[in-house]
Fold this sequence. Notes:
- By secondary structure, the chain is mainly beta.
- It has one helix at 13-27; strands at residues 51-54, 59-62, 69-74, 77-82, 87-90, 96-97, 111-117, 123-129, 134-141, 143-148, 151-158, 161-168, 173-174, 191-194, 201-204, 210-216, 218-219, 227-230, 236-239, 245-251, 263-266, 272-275, 281-284, 291-293, 302-306, 318-321, 327-331, 343-347, 351-355, 361-365, 370-374, 387-389, 398-400, 406-411.
Amino acid sequence: MVVNCLNDYMMEKSLLMAFAMAFVMSIVPQSATSANDGKPRYQLHTTSATKTIVVRGGAKNLYQFSCGVALVEHRNGWFVIDKLGNKLFDLPEGYRPAGSSVKYLRFYNDRLMIHKSVDYTYRDVKIIDKRGNIVKELGKAVETYAPVDGVGRMAVRNGFKTEMFYINLNGEKVGLQTPNSEVYNLVEGVRCYENPNTHLWGFVDANMNIVVPAKFKDLGAMHNGLAQARNTDGLWGFVNKSGAWVVQPQFSRIPGAFKGPYARVYDKQGVTYFMDKSGKFAWNNSTQRDTKCMEYVPEGYCVWTMYNDSIAPAYAPMHIVDSSFKKVGAIDRRVVEIDPSGEVVASNAQWFQWHNSYSDHMVFDWQGNLLLEFNNLNDSFFSEGLCSSYIDNIGNNFYFNEKGEIIVKFEDSQF
């Protein structure tokens, strides 16, 4: 049975706003800045512990932390720092991380593939650890593709033929030897893969060995043991790691993933449902069609925007609800300028990061209190508790935490 748990929220404007104000003020300590102030609790700032690294030309690009370290690109090369802002080592002269995607320029299991152009045809390829030690010399390659969660692709010249294969960060050939199949993210021990001949999808393991043969028209990443899958008739459902249907294909529109306790699905009339892993519907907005619901995140929360005729769309309140569909927080859009078309891009048990298409970023706690705001920063997402900033073209960039404390900043040399 579909249970509607939010009818009591659809009330007149005065009651709704009074309740939101009373609720938020009741859970926020008087010494803290609440969401209704419209001002972030923290500002970006240096501290006595902030480190400064002087780089000729400044730091050009800062990349996300993984394995406790991050890559920094400058005018003359690359180096690696730790989470305390200490510079650990420079990459060998002329070498750079394999690949170009910001998302994958990072260490995985403490290792990184790097390469250097030797001439117009070849690259010299190595694998290093996060201390800068060379783990494996892979030699010359015609092409290298960034490792994705530990597996990349590499092409070498063998006589007059070019051989492409998958390779892990131990420098070993692994799995499928089908060069046209890209490497996708490893999630819960499996990756999606596409058969280049049939264009159907299946699962492979961490080392590209087939787990589920390619038989689905489309396939999503695994979350909480289930993945979205579309059959050859075009209907969506959910499958487990063995490829068996757990929720039978029945949806015409692609459903959301089970990143949290529920997946978001839609019927043909556009009604939003939240469905549990057994396929039972826990809530729908059939009586509240103007409620825009985001997907649940792993922490068990979801952000909703409540539109109704009594409130101008620009001021429609945003609610934070838990896994029992109870409101635990609210963002008052009369005082906090937030774009409801954004999404949660990072989260943990204490806070979530909201990002919109204008490259604006806000960090809130789960009660809706605005903690930190930073704007005009592309791909500036928190990873391992730190986020990078790009504020100008001079290279005066820095890493900061959720309290706005700048851990390390990079400055151009004086001369």
